[in-house]
Amino acid sequence: MKVRIIAYYLPQFHPIPENDAAWGPGFTEWTNVAQARPLFRGHYQPRIPADLGFYDLRLPEVREQQAALAREAGIEGFCYWHYWFGNGKMLLERPFEEVLKSGKPDFPFCLAWANHDWTTGTWQKGGSNRMIAKQEYPGEEDYKAHFDYVLPAFRDHRYITVDGKPLFVIYDPYKFADVTRFMSLWQDLAVANGLPGVYFAAQTNNTSTIRRRENGSIERVLPNLNSSANVYQPFLDLGFNGIISNGKPRGEMLYLGKYRKIFLKLLHKYCPFLPASRWDYPKVVQHFFAPEDAWENVFPIVMPQWDRTARTGKSEGIYVNATPEAFRHHVEQALNVVKEKQPDHRIVILRSWNEWAEGNYMEPDLRFGHGFIDALKGAIKDFSS
């Protein structure tokens, strides 16, 4: 029995003019990673890369090495974060464009549209939260230009498909009020260009404190820890083909209790001097998966580690005891969730391949080496045998 592991991939490991202007010449994710410091005894910071070093994604050799490590782990392909802000404005496009143009590495890929504002607060703590690039949805002409930009990728033999259609993920389906018109237009454009359509997947928390109204506005709701049907079905009704299910909030609420979790989040927002919360990784991730994650068109997320203090300081919880052994058990739970699905839908999303400043990565580091790669490979091997 085979499983499809698709890993999110962050292309922010090379300097760009917008980041230079905001933080000074040469800013990349590594700037945050290298400056991180432990907040308590035993806190694993800073996190130092091993095999690949502090790499620059403008180097094709680095991209080849990443693909080789991902193959070793049993990953099917990378899902590159793709930044299109409207009116043709993009950021961090160079690594993927070079992969597409060069044909190397010969390793499968797809795109996830990171449709959120690019602000200083997204990437580094402290100071004012200044806007760098605002996410806008100008309308059909821009939607067509966006499609024309991604069409060469959709036609590439490496592009990952589901049901024969290129997989395209939308990170924030809540705040895109025009998303149904956008998807309908792209479906028509895909068919007009000889494709069978596009497989749109909405990423959402499987336990959510927000709900999208019919008019596209957002309202606050109490989270439902028993079922995710009321989260998933409205997106499917909008025209999405599938759901990418993030169980992190659900796991944390079931670990702490949902009201305590909400209270802690508010407490840290208004009292930033408080120490960072600690979350026991094995106990949290055992609650990641909702019953509806077993639906045929829902693809659950697994997460190897989590520690965003390099970006956000003490405002978010730090996952402790995130070891390769605990990660393997987490993956095994996810594989059990998808095992009854059709082979093409037996998808698990790995969050992430290289989000170093989130402490959320698979690449080798000085503490664990290839431990997380070996853990994933072992879980896949046992599942497939």
What does this structure look like?
The model has no long low-confidence stretch (mean pLDDT 95). The N and C termini lie close together (7 Å). An 8-stranded parallel beta barrel has the order 1-2-4-8-9-12-14-16, surrounded by 5 helices. A two-stranded antiparallel sheet has the order 5-6. The protein is of the alpha/beta class. The chain has helices at residues 17-23, 29-35, 60-73, 94-102, 120-123, 140-155, 179-192, 229-238, 248-256, 258-270, 281-285, 309-312, 324-338, 371-384; strands spanning 4-9, 77-86, 89-91, 109-113, 118-119, 131-133, 161-162, 165-170, 199-205, 210-212, 218-220, 242-246, 278-280, 298-302, 318-320, 347-350, 354-355, 360-361. The chain has a single domain (4-384), classed as Glycosidases (TIM Barrel). Helix 6 (140-155) crosses helix 7 and helix 9 packs across helix 10 (258-270).
Main attributes?
385 residues, alpha/beta, TIM Barrel, two-stranded antiparallel ribbon, 14 helices, 19% strand
* Secondary-structure arrangement, i.e. CATH architecture: Alpha-Beta Barrel
Q: Categorize the overall geometry.
A: globular
Ends apart, CA distance between termini: 7 Å
Number of helices: 14
CATH classification class? Alpha Beta
Number of strands: 18
Helix content: 25-40%
| Percent range for β-strand residues | 15-25%
Mean pLDDT: 95
Alpha-carbon Rg, integer? 20 Å
Q: Superfamily at the CATH H level?
A: Glycosidases
Label the structural class. alpha/beta
For the biggest β-sheet, the strand order reads 1-2-4-8-9-12-14-16
Q: What's the CATH topology label? A: TIM Barrel
Low-confidence stretches: none
For the largest beta-sheet, the strand count, sense and barrel status come to:
8 strands, parallel, barrel
The number of domains is 1
